[in-house]
UniProtKB/TrEMBL annotation, chain A:
The lineage of its organism: Bacteria, Bacillati, Actinomycetota, Actinomycetes, Pseudonocardiales. It comes from Umezawaea endophytica. GO terms for molecular function: oxidoreductase activity, acting on the CH-CH group of donors. SUPFAM superfamilies: Acyl-CoA dehydrogenase C-terminal domain-like (SSF47203). InterPro entries: AcylCo_DH-like_C. It comes from the Bacteria. This is DUF2786 domain-containing protein.
From TrEMBL, chain B:
Keywords: FAD, Flavoprotein, Oxidoreductase. Its cofactor is FAD. GO terms for biological process: fatty acid beta-oxidation using acyl-CoA dehydrogenase. Pfam families: Acyl-CoA_dh_1, Acyl-CoA_dh_M. Residues 132-225 form the Acyl-CoA oxidase/dehydrogenase middle domain. This is Acyl-CoA/acyl-ACP dehydrogenase.
């Protein structure tokens, strides 16, 4: 069942993604559902804010918690984004760790879809602002029918994802459904980024946010063949 | 993977360039980190070849013979073959390499003898980067509305070029290039001028990009850059033949090559899976086979599109179809390749991550997908693309 506390959590994370950027939204989600833990995906990958990377001594490896010192830690990179950089890391947990906590995992995985939805909605808004500010002939790019169609397609994906998420609590949607929602968001981002023209190809801009959003899904979702 | 109907000459070209590509593949990731690394590799055969590709033999270009033939890269079909192979090896190295490429095609189309002598002569002296500056901060797809100005010379005052350009490949390190600017409003007021860098008033700065980092796309500002009369391209031609007409024709000629670059990225993704995954499941094999079929289909289209513009420069409609198709394929193929490597594939496989990043840029180079689709529709609607026999003008089809 959806509790009020959860709904609040998702909407805070969703809002942070829209207004503050990737790193603050990841921090918001991690602090809410995995306090004190460094969230890692099924293959040990983490995409986190500096705050989470620096302030956690335990690693959460797709459901099980281990001491960070017991893991082999590798820095894989850092990406600058509006709202602060994200760090890409790998934490190899030792084998044979017990104590899988399904509730935490369910909360994290559901929250991540809300987070990416927020990023994608913000991408749509950014694209609309950009297109409204550019002219072709006597009109703006936003008023071109092909452009309107692409914006509408993106919106339809957002509406459907949101319709599926609304009123849903952690654990109510199986991983296959969550993966599908992620794929829909990736698809929407792909089309929306094109609307930004080459400005969407610059490092540190909205196109980079979309790329990191995709990396989040790739790092934290269980591949279909595992399900 | 085979492409049917390429003759032995072209097959030899493909084989040789594929061999040259091995160096590009080795250096790709390092160049992605540091795009200036290319300066240390001017001696690679592919870089040497690209540095004069497109210069006609009558200006002294003597490329190394391949199976007894010399390929000057003056034909779109030759360029498509070369681009696919080198892009498949590493697209970053390809776009980082010095050479006349975009500007060279325009020169070939528009320049008078003296301008060609000067431009090609400099290119043959030593490897130089060139640039082709059309896009502006406020005008991309609608390039015809560009606002950079070149105020014509009066009395003893030289012509002066002022304005801004954006996303121009290699401009920050180029020694010469072409800039599109207007002398008066309207489509006939557009001119292309040759500009040397450094020049007083000319400034170019590289922009950091997500992918295709070798291209070093740059922002240019120009403030009263002096342009000598002999630097106005096509000064011997009528205004209708030197402005917008010229960049449309140039793009027609280049577009199959751009499509081939996208195709090369798609093929690289496909080959990466084949090389790095063993024991594929049945469904994985099926997906990979489908990808291979899409790559082969797109290649046929690219080659026919190239043959069409080689036969008639105005026939860029097939090339628009090929470019849209190949750019989407590059996107799909690179994304799909990631699904063969489990959770966090891109974090574990830097080459895959780079392929995905590079593929995204293909949407924009030389006109976005929407603009290509509008062009293709125009070709169909006006009957310039033959509805019954769309490959009529492409000699390959015979
Ligand atoms: C790697 C790279 C290399 C490049 N190299 C060069 C170079 O060497 N020289 C150079 O001059 N430029 C270069 N460019 C720029 C490129 O040509 C432009 O990015 C491209 O023309 C699109 O312009 P824009 O980015 O301003 O997008 P915009 O024109 O702002 O387009 C934004 C969106 O609106 C859509 N749109 C625009 N008009 C219409 C319409 N009428 N109908 C429907 N949809 C429309 C577009 O499809 C796009 O989705 C390069 C770009 C990249 C990414």
């Amino acid at each position: 069942m959806t509790t009020l506390a959860h709904t609040d959590q998702w909407s805070r994370c969703h809002r942070a993604a829209r207004t503050d950027g990737v790193a603050p939204a990841v921090t918001e989600l991690a602090v809410a559902v995995l306090p004190g833990l460094l969230p890692c995906g099924p293959a040990g990958h983490a995409i986190v804010s500096e705050e989470i990377a620096a302030g956690t001594s335990r690693v959460w490896a797709d459901g099980v918690t281990v001491d960070r010192s017991a893991c082999a830690e590798t820095a894989l990179g850092e990406i600058d984004l509006p709202g602060g950089p994200v760090l890409l890391q790998r934490h190899r947990a030792p084998g044979g760790v017990n104590g899988f906590a399904p509730a935490q995992r369910a909360a994290w995985t559901l929250g991540l879809v809300w987070l990416r939805l927020g990023l994608s909605e913000e991408l749509r808004e950014t694209a609309m602002r950009y297109l409204n500010g550019r002219r072709t002939g006597n009109s703006t790019l936003l008023q071109q029918q092909m452009v309107k169609s692409t914006v509408a397609d993106g919106l339809i994906e957002h509406l459907e994802v949101r319709a599926v998420l609304t009123g849903i609590g952690p654990g109510e949607l199986p991983d296959t459904v969550l993966n599908h929602l992620h794929a829909q968001l990736t698809q929407a981002d792909r089309a929306l980024v094109k609307l930004l023209g080459a400005s969407g190809y610059l490092a540190g801009g909205p196109g980079q946010v979309a790329r990191v959003s995709e990396l989040l899904a790739e790092a934290y979702c269980r591949p279909e063949e595992w399900l | 993977m085979t492409t049917i109907r390429l003759d032995d000459r072209l097959l030899a070209l493909r084989g040789q360039v594929r061999e040259w590509g091995a160096d590009f593949r080795t250096l790709g990731l390092a160049l992605d980190r540091d795009p200036e690394l290319i300066r240390e590799h001017f001696d690679l055969p592919a870089v040497r070849y690209l540095s004069t590709m497109g210069i006609p033999p009558e200006y002294g270009n003597v490329p190394i013979p391949i199976a007894g033939n010399r390929f000057y890269g003056t034909l779109a079909l030759e360029r498509a073959i070369i681009m696919e192979e080198l892009s498949c090896a590493d697209v970053g190295m390809l776009v980082a390499s010095p050479g006349p490429l975009l500007a060279g095609v325009l020169i070939d189309l528009l320049a008078d003898e003296q301008q060609k002598d000067w431009f090609y002569g400099r290119m043959l002296e030593s490897p130089l980067w060139t640039f082709f500056a059309l896009t502006e901060p406020d005008r991309g797809s609608d390039a015809g509305a560009l606002s950079t100005t070149v105020v014509p010379a009066t009395g003893d005052k030289p012509a002066l070029l002022s304005g801004a350009k954006r996303y121009v490949g290699n401009a920050a390190r180029a020694q010469l290039g072409v800039v599109f600017a207007r002398t008066s409003p309207g489509p006939l007021g557009i001119n292309a001028v040759l500009v040397e860098s450094p020049s007083p008033g000319f400034h170019a700065e590289a922009l950091e990009t997500i992918g295709l980092r070798g291209a070093r796309i740059s922002a240019i500002t120009m403030q009263d850059v002096e342009i000598a009369p002999e630097r106005f391209l096509g000064r011997h031609l009528s205004p209708s033949r030197r402005g917008m007409w010229a960049f449309v024709q140039t793009f027609n000629l280049l577009r199959p090559g751009v499509a081939a670059i996208a195709l090369g990225i798609a093929r690289a993704a496909h080959e990466y899976v084949i090389t790095h995954r063993s024991a594929l499941r049945r469904d994985e094999r099926d997906r990979l086979d489908l990808l291979a079929r899409r790559i082969d289909g797109a290649r046929r289209l690219v080659h026919l599109a190239a043959a069409a513009v080689d036969a008639r420069t105005g026939d860029g409609y097939l090339a628009s179809a090929a470019k849209v198709r190949a750019a989407e394929l590059a996107h799909d193929a690179t994304q799909q390749a990631c699904t063969f490597f489990g959770a966090g594939a891109r974090l574990e496989h830097p080459v895959l991550d780079k392929l995905v990043r590079d593929a995204r840029g293909m949407e924009f180079i030389e006109g976005t997908g929407n603009m290509q689709k509008l062009n293709l529709f125009q070709g169909l609607f006006t009957g310039k693309l033959d509805r019954d026999d769309p490959f009529r003008t492409a000699p390959l089809a015979g």
